[in-house]
Amino acid sequence: MTEASKQDATAFDTAFSSLPLVAILRGVKPDEVEPIARMLYDEGFRLIEVPLNSPEPFESITRLAHALPRDAVIGAGTVIDPADVARVRDAGGRLIVMPHGDAAVIRAAKAAGMWCLPGVSTPTEAFAAIAAGADAIKIFPAEVITPVVLRAMRAVLPPGLRTLPVGGIKPDSMDAFLAAGANGFGLGSALYAPGMAAATVGERARAFVAAWHAR
Question: H or E stretch including 88?
Fold first, then answer.
């Protein structure tokens, strides 16, 4: 294995260690995605997803894969069809994020050599996702899976399992989840909303990064 391929194989781990915040660009358009993503990258984000229910998501993923340095791990969110995994890979994506824990999608992602973050809301779903090959789990929706619930789940989940609450996360709500055992977060509308200017996204990104480092 070459040095470049070794670095690529550990890109998710490196990105997660650097800043375990996943930017969710739901609704972004291809003609606006690059300046937004560059702003996020400049603020320290290395994990960026374009949900597949966005306009022309595969085009946006392709543009990001070419525009950002290789240490940025680009992928797709809201992946519910195993057939879409190959389309994401062919567009240049390396990360599959799901709202659910369908083992068929997880297995397809791992077979394609991609990282996968399935969505779970119960220990049963979490253990099924782990068995299918999940690299981390998305605790979703975090508005319902409160820190109290997460703490109870962490008592039975593998200690090394990375958990990322997603849904309604704001800079001032992270501490409670971190105290309950969260390892990172997926950030949606509090970071980016459709039509938002890159500069505004940068300001919001800066607030999240500051909150993370202040923990």
Answer: helix 83-91
